[in-house]
Write a sequence for this structure.
């Protein structure tokens, strides 16, 4: 009986291990789905945002690998920058012995960094690595934030992505406007003088026409009187 109980216990022992393994597979599957979604979103952003591509270029050129460790819950993700986009995986690439940049943060800090589009939230993250690469990554994260993506989409429709002019540019524009105003004023003065000249010519023409009519009438009267006197005398 003891041997039977032992065999029974051995048969029942693997069940909890199987349940634990099943739970791990589900968690990994969910993480893979989330990574695929984020990877697709990044691909679209890189495709439609030239400035974002410009910020990602130095990272892609160096084949930078970023290790992102989040706490509560604990998740480790590796982001590999390349010319085809940003690849996300839960394992370090085989051709790399270590990540070039490491980001440590709580999950809510990462969410704030991606949602609020605020450089202060990016600075709150613990980012370690070469200074130049870290600065490139920070610039990329600020631009890739959800707020930045929405702002970029709005700029496409409103044209609001134009940089504000500097004081020198504003002064130059004002000077150009003043030159155009002066040119328009000169044209107006010229047209006014031309109108006055034409008006004077018109008055003179009317006066000459009136004088010619009067002269013609006087000549006709004189001719008529001459004819009458010719027959009378």
């Amino acid at each position: 009986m003891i041997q039977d109980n032992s065999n029974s216990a051995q048969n029942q022992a693997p069940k909890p291990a199987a349940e634990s393994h099943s739970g791990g597979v589900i968690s990994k599957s969910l993480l893979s789905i989330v990574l695929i979604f984020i990877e697709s979103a990044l691909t679209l952003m890189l495709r439609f945002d030239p400035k974002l591509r410009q910020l990602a270029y130095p990272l892609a050129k160096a084949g930078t690998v970023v290790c992102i460790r989040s706490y509560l819950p604990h998740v480790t993700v590796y982001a590999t920058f390349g010319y085809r986009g940003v690849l996300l995986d839960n394992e370090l690439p085989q051709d790399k012995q270590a990540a070039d940049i490491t980001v440590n943060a709580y999950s809510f800090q990462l969410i704030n960094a991606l949602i609020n589009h605020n450089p202060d939230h990016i600075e709150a993250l613990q980012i370690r690595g070469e200074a130049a690469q870290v600065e490139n990554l920070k610039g990329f994260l600020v631009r890739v934030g959800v707020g930045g993506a929405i702002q970029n989409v709005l700029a496409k429709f409103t044209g609001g992505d134009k940089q504000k002019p500097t004081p020198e540019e504003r002064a130059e524009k004002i000077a150009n406007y003043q030159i155009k105003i002066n040119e328009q004023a000169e044209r107006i003065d010229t047209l006014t003088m031309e109108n006055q000249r034409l008006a004077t010519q018109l008055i003179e023409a009317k006066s000459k026409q009136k004088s010619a009519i009067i002269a013609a009438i006087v000549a006709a009267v004189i001719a008529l009187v001459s004819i009458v006197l010719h027959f009378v005398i």
